[in-house]
Design goal:
- The complex is a heterodimer of chains A (about 220) and B (about 650).
- Chain A is built from six helices and no strands.
- Chain A has about 220 residues and is mostly helical.
- Chain A has one domain: Up-down Bundle (Four Helix Bundle (Hemerythrin (Met), subunit A)).
- In chain A, helix 2 packs parallel to helix 6 and helix 4 packs antiparallel against helix 5.
- The longest helix of chain A is centred in the first third of the chain and has 36 residues.
- The N terminus of chain A is likely disordered.
- Chain B has two domains: about 90 residues, no CATH class; about 475 residues, Cytochrome c oxidase-like, subunit I domain (Cytochrome C Oxidase, Chain A), CATH 1.20.210.10.
- In chain B, strand 1 and strand 2 form a beta hairpin.
- The model of chain B has no long low-confidence stretch (mean pLDDT about 90).
- Classes of the chains: A mainly alpha (about 220), B mainly alpha (about 650).
- At the A-B interface, helix 1, helix 2 and helix 5 of A face strand 1, strand 2, helix 3, helix 4 and helix 9 of B.
Chain lengths: ~220, ~650
């Protein structure tokens, strides 16, 4: 048997573009996703640092929003719960396709997509109904940006999860090669961590511990 | 349907949708620029109709004008990326229309001639050349601004520019040069040479490779246009709250950095994944060429720390355009928050610039000395040490800001500590040169230049890391001279050596070393004049970023200006050597230096898939003078065969 024919009949699926076994490209993609997570995590840390830094300093006594109208904590935790449910559904879908249960994959992906969509709408509603504006002091600004980051994360997750059904129908996700579904689930797991951290900071660190805040010259007239 | 890939494997193919390349057959730089401009203009016009004009805010700007200009710049970036074809890949992925082998070959630029350099081409060699040209263009623009700065400072009897415009030139020169120096080695050589060096067919994620370059391309016009919109008047660091009080040109800077950070992050993901997962069989970690280790170190630092800089600009743009309160003290913001976020990348960025250039010279010097690298492991330890400690030194830029004076001393210690792993690298260079028989070619001259400049830049850096000395020197021309010795003296002269060394592989032509050497040596000596004089002016007390100064500094400034013009002439001569050699230089053989690393073992020009058969590594990359064990086995077998033949006779 020629080498060409032998490769054609090989049991291990191969990448259509490079000819490598899909296990090789999957390993490479996994490292790539980890690197993306590291980079995104640094950005998320920058936002969290900004929140905690301004909360701890309470510069010019201007951390708190007008009349101490803090954001309602419940929407933060509802959104976090939504992201976690979507992620669990995606992992359930991955376990289904790994076992060859296509129906479970479809169900999991659809649940993940729908829950992500509802959560994203919830995030937009929360952003538009805060009892303060982005200009109302440092807490308002930091909280707005934590929520904007969550909305951006959810948009990416929505794009990724909604692609799963189409890719399954196109034969791009199979029992032998489901690495992309797994990558999506990995990314969603990180998004859970990021959203949880944002919700934790925004709901537990409200009133600044620094009641004797520094003031700067004539800034506050 | 199947495709035969690399003449070995018949691989089942997904359905081919239309002609290979699909939507990307119709996109190129022209469609990108057109769509970018159209979307930007449409955003500005429609936004102008929606925004209430007529009232002014505290910055004497039209209310909503900042947000509108930010949206316009963002529309340019998004429009350009759509027009160049960057969104075709994600949409195809979403639809499940994955690339076929024919698609991938089309996207890699197969049979497209020189037009492939103007398209969303994924081949790492094309991206490397694109980065090279972009880096040279940015260096030219930044260099031109440097000439204007030196003209203002050299003409001590008159004021050449409006002070605000002068400040804008300073800020724009700074950030343009920082971007250019970040990409000048890691961009062209990290993309073109590194995959060849590790025996790979391409980068791990070819489409992300094209994306990283075109994002960089899209980031440049907003930055350049700042000069038309009031400019960046507070230096490349754009400290707050000056940044929020600036003209709207500041938005160009912020959009540029946010976009460039995406580009750098994507490039970092690609470089790291390629190096970790795509090395040739047999290339264990202790056989990886030192240049690849340097690229890995720079990519790690960029990947981890660039988002800090990016978010500092996201939040600054939010303050500027939407009146949020991150850095505005009267509303609860803190300028120190900005400075911390900025310098968390701002200092590692120095190493992101210098480490690839250093690694490139370590790589090439063994070739021109024909001896192994002196203590490869110490060099690797040096890179690892720099990566580790670089994240613990940022506060030395903030000694004089008033932020946590007590933190100055531990950061003084950490800054001095980083000179130890950095010193390792200089010692490895010196140890490799020691008792070597030097083949004196242009790349080797750059090694000497870098050692000289790096020692001066490094030692003056140790002075500045000391809190008491910095209290005197901070904000003076001494600091300017110091960082130019590091970034230009070590970084740019190192890059010149690296480009001269790999020029034959990248272009298929030999660099005209006679003309190149004239340009190089003229630049080198002019550089010493320019920044040596600047050290003197700084020690005498001349502040930086100030265009009017005491007559006591005149002589130093005249000398610096003469030196700067001569650097410009030297660089033009070097550029002339590059352009003429590229167009009509002597055709290069595949391995003109007789080097042992893999990039020189394949043909020149490099074929689309780099190697006909993927190489297997059997020895260290620097075993000059060490007999190849496989050659010994072949010789032994040959001898035995001759004995058998003789016996039979």
């Amino acid at each position: 048997m020629s080498e060409l024919a032998a490769n054609t009949q090989s049991a291990v699926p191969r990448s259509a573009t490079t000819g490598e076994p899909v296990t090789t490209t999957a390993r490479r993609n996994r490292l790539g996703i980890w690197m993306c997570i590291v980079s995104d995590a640094t950005g998320t840390v920058a936002l969290l640092v900004a929140y905690v830094y301004l909360w701890s300093l309470n510069v010019n006594n201007a951390w708190a929003p007008p009349k101490d109208t803090w954001a309602d904590p419940i929407p933060f935790w509802l959104i976090t719960a939504g992201v976690i449910v979507a992620t669990l559904a995606m992992w359930w879908a991955v376990s289904g396709i790994r076992a060859g249960r296509t129906g479970q994959f479809v169900a999991g992906s659809v649940i993940a997509s729908l829950v992500t969509l509802v959560t994203l709408i919830g995030q937009i509603v929360q952003l538009s109904t805060f009892p303060f504006d982005i200009t109302d002091g440092a807490y308002a600004s930091a909280t707005f940006w934590l929520c904007i980051a969550t909305a951006l994360h959810l948009s990416v997750v929505g794009f990724l999860t909604s692609a799963m059904i189409g890719r399954l129908r196109a034969g791009r996700i199979t029992r032998e090669d489901h690495s992309h579904a797994r990558l999506v689930a990995m990314w969603m797991t990180w998004v859970c961590v990021a959203v949880f951290a944002g919700a934790f900071f925004a709901t537990t660190l409200n009133a600044s511990p620094n009641s004797n805040s520094p003031t700067f010259g004539t800034f506050q007239e | 349907m199947t495709a035969v890939i690399h003449e070995q494997q018949a691989v089942p193919q997904p359905k081919q949708h239309g002609k290979p390349g699909g939507f990307l057959r119709h996109t190129n730089i022209v469609t990108g620029v057109l769509l970018g401009v159209i979307l930007a203009v449409a955003t500005y016009v429609i936004g102008g109709l929606l925004v209430p004009w007529g009232t002014e805010d505290s910055n004497f700007a039209q209310v909503g004008q900042e947000a509108l200009i930010a949206a316009t710049y963002a529309a340019w970036v998004i429009g350009f990326m759509i027009g160049i074809g960057a969104f075709a890949g994600p949409i195809r992925w979403w639809l499940g229309h994955d690339l076929t082998h024919a698609d991938a070959e089309y996207m890699a630029g197969k049979d497209q001639g020189k037009w492939k350099y103007w398209k969303y081409t994924t081949d790492h060699k094309v991206v490397g050349i694109q980065y090279l040209v972009m880096a040279m263009a940015l260096l030219g623009f930044g260099g031109l601004l440097a000439m204007l700065i030196r003209t203002e400072l050299g003409v001590t009897w008159a004021e050449v520019f409006d002070p605000n415009f002068y400040n804008s030139i300073i800020g724009t020169h700074g950030i343009v040069m920082v971007i250019a120096m970040i990409i000048v080695v890691a961009g062209p050589l990290g993309n073109f040479i590194m995959p060849l060096m590790i025996g790979a067919r391409d980068m791990a994620f070819p489409r992300l490779n094209a994306l990283s370059f075109w994002l960089l391309f899209a980031a440049v016009p907003p930055l350049a246009s700042n000069l038309l919109l009031g400019g960046i008047r507070d230096g490349w660091t754009v400290y707050q709250p000056l940044g929020t009080q600036a003209p709207v040109g500041m938005i160009g800077y912020q959009i540029c950095i946010i976009t460039f950070a995406f580009s750098t992050g994507i490039a970092g993901v690609n470089l790291i994944t390629t190096i970790v997962t795509m090395r040739a069989r047999g290339m264990t970690w202790n056989r990886v060429p030192i240049f690849v280790i340097g690229i890995l170190a720079a990519a790690i630092m960029g990947l981890v720390w660039f988002p800090m800089y990016q978010y500092s600009q996201v939040l600054a743009l939010s303050d500027f355009a939407f009146q949020s309160s991150f850095f505005i003290p009267q509303n609860g913001g803190s300028v120190w928050l900005y400075e911390n976020l900025f310098w968390l990348l701002g200092h590692p960025e120095v190493y992101v610039i210098v480490i690839p250039a250093t690694a490139a010279l370590l790589e090439l010097m063994v070739v021109f000395l024909r001896k192994p690298l002196f203590s490869y492991k110490i060099a690797v330890a040096g890179f690892a040490g720099v990566v580790g400690i670089s994240s613990l030194v940022w506060v030395h830029h903030m000694y004089m800001t008033g932020w946590s004076p007590a933190a100055g001393y531990p950061f003084m210690l950490s800054t001095e500590l980083i000179s130890i792993p950095f010193g390792f690298l200089v010692l490895v260079m010196l140890g490799t040169i020691w008792r070597g028989k030097v083949w004196t070619r242009l790349p080797m001259m750059c090694v000497y230049a870098m050692i000289w400049n790096k020692i001066i830049g490094g030692i003056t850096g140790v002075y500045l890391s000391d809190v008491p000395v910095d209290q005197y020197m901070h904000g003076s021309m001494f600091v300017v001279a110091h960082f130019h010795f590091m970034l230009m003296g070590a970084g740019l002269f190192g890059a010149m050596g690296a480009i001269a060394y790999w020029f034959p592989k990248m272009t298929g032509r030999m660099l005209n070393e006679r003309i190149g050497s004239i340009g190089f040596w003229l630049s080198f000596f002019a550089f010493q004049l320019t920044f040596g004089s600047m050290f003197v002016a700084g020690l005498q007390g001349q502040p930086r970023r100030v265009l009017q100064f005491d007559n006591a500094f005149n002589v130093s400034n005249w000398l610096s200006t003469i030196g700067a013009y001569l650097i410009g002439v030297g660089m033009l001569i070097f550029l002339y050597a590059i352009i003429t050699s590229w167009r009509s230089g002597q055709v290069a053989p595949s391995n003109p230096w007789g080097a042992k690393t893999l990039e020189w073992q394949t043909a020149t020009p490099v074929p689309l898939e780099n190697f006909p058969v993927l190489p297997v590594v059997t020895s260290d990359p620097y075993d000059y003078g060490v007999p190849d064990p496989y050659l010994a086995i072949e010789k032994k077998l040959s001898d035995e065969n001759q004995d058998v033949t003789a016996g039979a006779r």
